[in-house]
User: Fold these one by one.
Assistant:
Number 1:
Amino acid sequence: MNKRVLLMITRPEIGGATRNVRDLALKLHGSGFKVMALSSEKQGWLVDELLKSGIPYVHSSLFKARIAPLYDILFVMWLIRFLRKQDIDVLHIHSSKAGILGRIAGKLSGVRRIIFSVHGVSFQRQIPLLPRLLYMIAERFAYWMCDAIVCVSGFDYGRYVDLLGDPQGKVQTIHNELLDFTPQARVPNIMPVFGFLGRLAYQKDPQLFVHSLIRLYELTGISFSAVIKGGGELQEELKCLVHNSRLHNRINFEAEDDRVSEFLARVDVLVMTSRFEGYPYTLLEGRAAGCYLVASDVGGCREIINDESVGLLFTQGSVESCAQALKKSIGQLKQDTLSQRGNEYQTYFLGILRCYDIDLGELGLTNEVHF
């Protein structure tokens, strides 16, 4: 397979979109595609992950994450030349800023196939009105400059189509799925253990997790412990919040690292308090590890937690709603694994190859894939 694929994303920092790019790059590379990735920064989690697998990575100092009209024009000009020089067959773009500039450059450079993946609809998030309006206008324009738009959740699909329409029928849903997660044996606990896994940043709203645990203790007085695993700009603020609370001896912090499977094996209830999400890998991993899930009702969380045997949803931003869900989760705990991995990633990969307009027969794969 001599197809040349460029995966493009705005930032290489760890997150759902970058993990999607990493997983897809590894799968394409292993299937014989000539794949490379492009982002705005020289260093980051994605860079390390790709380079250790021998996948080329490039960045441009002209590519700015913020809105910067002069730099944006210069970057598009640079990207047009780069795409032509590399003779890219498929340009697959992830994240909002990259999605606008990449589609413009891809169209003007004559790339054969252009795909845009939506990891949460930017103009539905809690961002200032002017940038949100600019993204909506730009997205209406960029819609016509690609061959397919992939939403990672049915929620994002519905929001995208409701707001912008889909006159050419190019928008579809292909859920994120796990590629390299292996659950460990469950660790039995004397008392319930609540876990938070993710960046300690605005999007994830970790303060709500702490406040909800405090409220749970007020409601029930039961014995429990909690672990917060992650790092980010809110880490010190969060540690102060815990230190000054009555639960300071019940809530522990763990550094962000790759031992996710080991962490989840010790957690009974995995809690996600995010303000917005696409189709979060954290919940997929928690489900595969056998954790009971409690999550804010945002993005594609409802598509993962589709039954109370799997988990519970609560109203985003509500301490009372979250605390009630935590209380109810204690009676729902299961120790058996809920793993549903199977051939999930193969299904995702085949769906993406269809978007690339690849003849699956050349790879020895079947065209009989249904969603």
Number 2:
Amino acid sequence: MGNFEEYMTDVMNKSALSLMLSVGHRTKLFESMKDSSQMTSQQILIIQSILKNMR
């Protein structure tokens, strides 16, 4: 049974990663982070809202 549990944990982890990457792509998070070196999440949200208002 251990193999099945490990397999399902791996499937769930990969699924969550895929979902997070998709959300990041759709919200243009990666575009916002592209030119930033080290920013807080608050700073990234500010940049995202500015970019959203420019479109």
Number 3:
Amino acid sequence: MIFLLEYQSIFYIIEITIMNIVAKPKILLIDDDELILESFQSCFESLGYEADCESNPEKALERIKSNEYDLIFLDLKMEPIDGYFVLSEIKKTNPFTTVIIISGFGEFDDAIEAVEKGAYHIIKKPIDFKDLQFFTKKAWEFHLIKTELRKLKQELGEKSVHSNKFITKNPELLKTLELLKEIAQSDIPVLLRGESGTGKELLAEMIHEASHRREYPLIKINFASIPEDFLESELFGYTQGVFPEATQDKLGKLELADGGTIFLDGIGEISTSFQAKLLQVLQTKEFEPLGQFKTKKIDVRIISAININIEEAIKEKSFREDLYYSLKGVEFEIPPLRDRVEDIPLLVEFFIQKFKNPDLDVKISQEAMQLLKTYRWSGNVRELQNVIHRAVVLTKNGLITSKQLPLEIQNRNIHNEELVSLEELEKTHIKKVLQKTSDYKEASRILGIDLTTLWRKRKKYQID
């Protein structure tokens, strides 16, 4: 039996082999009616399946804690513990078990509530023997498909994760990384702010890998790269025939991320009308695929990233303030590379090791390093990575010099103070004044600042 799944714009074939379907499921039947136990067990035996039967819900809980069942058939109306409590314990102990609710006359509304809490389906008593056979086989097939899909999502999620080592010695960024570790285990939404290429996606991966959701996938969606007309179908999914190109059902990113984390990149690029739809999903944790009128519930951790001035966007009414506060459970600002020059030598060495031939020893000249340290890096770490990759490819003798750097970096006049950041200019000027004066009092007078301010700036710039 073959199923076609589209995942992250790639089609994968899930094949549930005949051997798998013939393989016997591990079944537990929980009902305080002995006749139901006998009739259901007879049905399972006719299919070649074996089942544990339990009329006492307390003993059933003991079985659940000591065994991993594929299918559990559960009656709701039992004493002294009802089926709702048993269902909640199943979901805590074995969340991947497929649970089928056995519903009696007049209990259908209660059974629907149980389905909303995680049960797979409802069987209404009395049930025809052949219907029960058919349903049990379908429930087993569903369980196999669900298991294969979960494995596939996990495998593909793992393949998309890069090294979780965020390279920095910047004091402020190191504090940020420590805070990220502290909040990773919670489900609080995280908003990452910073220019493109600063490492927001890598931080999202690190949060996911450190969280209790790491066994589930991390699904990424970049709103900036998707046309507005396709956003709903990408995020929510759709059913076959909802529009001419919809030749089959497609799972949306939200559903693929169920149980795990979804990374909403470029959140500032979406229209206010789509922002309203996204806000509703964040508030209710529910959505409807295009072409469906059945609401689906999701359990996901939200991490989002933005590279615009969100405060200005809110003032201009181009970004909803309520959506901002829904995304901003915790907010982190990632500084641009030009503001953490101390990280450039570390990153350069990392990228050299990443791209060089393992048999060659590649170094970089002091002149080339100085050019890299004084360049503005509008593309941040991503741009630096591409520059070093190019330089490693072009170097002939194992030494990267200025000649292997792009022309815009080669031609940069490193002595041109107009192109140096204000902080670097201030640091250099304070150093010059201190070198030419006899004491701090005279230096503070020349600089036009008091002694306390001079002390703070010496500490900030690490000037002895």
